[in-house]
Amino acid sequence: MKKKILILCGGVSKERLISLETGKQVAIELKKNKYKVLACEPDNTLLKKIKLFKPNIIFNALHGQFGEDGYIQAFLETQKIPYTHSGVIASSIAMDKIISKKIFLKNNILTPKFLVLQKSLFNISETKRLLVKKKIKFPIVVKPINEGSSLGVKICKNILDLNRSTKVLFKKYDQLILEQYIGGQEIQAAVINRNPLGAIELIPKRLFYDYKAKYTKAAKTKHIMPANLNKNKYNEVLDIAKQAHKALGCKGVSRSDFKFFNSKFYLLEINTQPGMTALSLVPEIARHKGLSFVNLVELILLDASINRWKNAH
């Protein structure tokens, strides 16, 4: 008898529409394969729906704040029902770009030089001094510490750009991270159930692989699968992605975002709940490996059902 799967999607983050699309795609595939599926929002009716539906597994298709930052995971832990993707700690760490970068560095994983800015303490003259001290040169990337899908990311060419962008972002966020811009190839590597799945290269027509490039067909980002790397470098990026997945304690599937420049891989960040839409990268990588969309989803569900409680408790 096929299991009952409750799909959590939607939510209140800025990635709500992407989450709904992920939930829709997962539901379509599972229903085709005779699973009993219920898709619902993480609202005040969730607990009632869980008790009525009695799912075997909860597929967490939420993205962004409250969905992949440990918040909903903490609630799901109290229900003692296996759920997909990473747990409370790994989710919260991966979502925080500052903490995750520190863990990367501790594990000898190369990541761009960075500087943290606090809204209450922001001073452009002091920021300029710190950039010189840390040898961070323009262009510089400025972004929120806890957003996904490249939301709020700005690339600044000079100090005037930086001052303007930080002031705009500080209207919405209390903390920002400045990062040395790294050129070169854009590489994304996926890991599933602690095993590397593959790496894809992206060539966006926009300045970088931003929100529009990720989710708009008109943006026409070129996808190269497998990534255009020699065999040794391809295996190297998969190994780094696996190390990062393990270092943060991730479960299920993760996608690590890299820049490859001067023969070095720079890990920008790791996504613990990658999108599963028609334009998403992890399903595309899986297809190249001979895994259909539903096979990919079933592997994620299998990890949740077998390993969730054994590893957590």
Could you outline the blueprint of secondary structure elements for this entry?
Blueprint: E1 4-8, H1 16-32, E2 36-40, H2 46-53, E3 57-60, H3 71-79, H4 88-95, H5 97-106, E4 114-118, H6 124-133, E5 140-144, E6 154-156, H7 159-169, E7 175-180, E8 185-192, E9 195-203, H8 211-215, E10 222-224, H9 231-247, E11 253-261, E12 264-271, H10 281-288, H11 293-312
Parallel strand pairs: 1-2, 1-3
Antiparallel strand pairs: 4-7, 5-6, 5-7, 8-9, 8-11, 9-10, 11-12
What can you tell me about this protein's structure?
The protein has 313 residues and is of the alpha+beta class. Helix content is 39%, strand content 22%. The strands form three sheets. Strands 10-9-8-11-12 form a five-stranded antiparallel sheet. A four-stranded antiparallel sheet has the order 4-7-5-6, with helices on one face. The model has no long low-confidence stretch (mean pLDDT 90).
Give a nutshell description of this structure.
The chain has 313 residues and is of the alpha+beta class.
The coarse silhouette is globular
The structural domain count equals: 3
Examine the coordinates and then state which fold CATH places here, giving the name of the CATH topology of the largest domain: D-amino Acid Aminotransferase, Chain A, domain 1
Order of helices and strands: EHEHEHHHEHEEHEEEHEHEEHH
Derived from helix and strand composition plus strand pairing, the structural class reads alpha+beta
Question: Looking at the chains present, what oligomeric state does this protein adopt?
Answer: single chain
Spell out the CATH superfamily of the largest domain: ATP-grasp fold, B domain
Query: How many strands, what sense, and barrel or not for the largest sheet?
Result: 5 strands, antiparallel
Write down the overall mean pLDDT. Answer: 90
Helical run tally: 11
At the first level of CATH, the class of the largest domain is: Alpha Beta
Overall helicity: 25-40%
Distance between the termini: 27 Å
Instruction: Provide the CATH architecture of the largest domain.
Output: 2-Layer Sandwich
